Amino acid sequence: MCGTASFEVTGGFDCFYLCHCKHCQKDTGSAHAANLFSQSAKLVWRTGADAVTSYTLPGTRHNKSFCKLCGSALPSTQTPGLLVVPAGCLDSEISMAPTAHIFSSSKAVWDEALGEVPAFEGLPA
Asked: pLDDT by residue (tens digit) across 34-93?
C-alpha cells in the first residue's frame, strides 16, 4: 500500500484458496483470506525486502508476511517449498478463478447471504 516493498513472481500458481478459518478472519479483519499458492514459482523482492516482516501464530502453521511500515499483506515464504501470495497485493490481473473455499466450517455467519447485499461502485452517499 505504501509502495516501500515491491516484488515480482515468476512462474505459475497451483491453487487459489479462499480461507475461512478463524485465524484468517482475525488477520484480515474480514470473512476470509484470498491467497494464491505455488510450490514452483519464484519470488524476487525488487525493493523494500528489509521492510517485510512475518508473524507465525505459536503452535500453528498459520503465518502472515506484511510491510512493517503500512501493514499491508505481502508474499510469504515462511513454509519451506511454498510461496503464498495474498491475491489483493498483486498489481497484475489474476488469471485464475478461486480453486476452492477452505475451512468453510468456520465461515462467518454474516458471510452466508452476501449475494443478497446491495452493491455500490463507491462509498454510498
From this structure: 999 999 999 999 999 999 999 999 999 999 999 999 999 999 998 999 999 999 999 999
Under 8 Å between Cβ of 23 and 106: no
d(C-alpha 79, C-alpha 61), whole Å = 8
Helix (H, G, I), strand (E, B) or coil at 104: helix
- Long-range Cβ pairs for the range 68-71 (8 Å, 24+): 69/2, 69/4, 70/1, 70/2, 70/4, 71/1
Produce one character per residue of 66-103: b if its CB has 16 or more CB atoms within 10 Å, e if not: bbeeeeebbbbbbeeeebbbbbebeeeeeeeebeeebb
For 64, the enclosing helix (H) or strand (E) is: strand 63-67
Higher pLDDT: 125 or 54? It is 54
Predicted pLDDT at 108: 93
**114: left (phi > 0), else alpha (psi -120 to 50), else beta?**
alpha
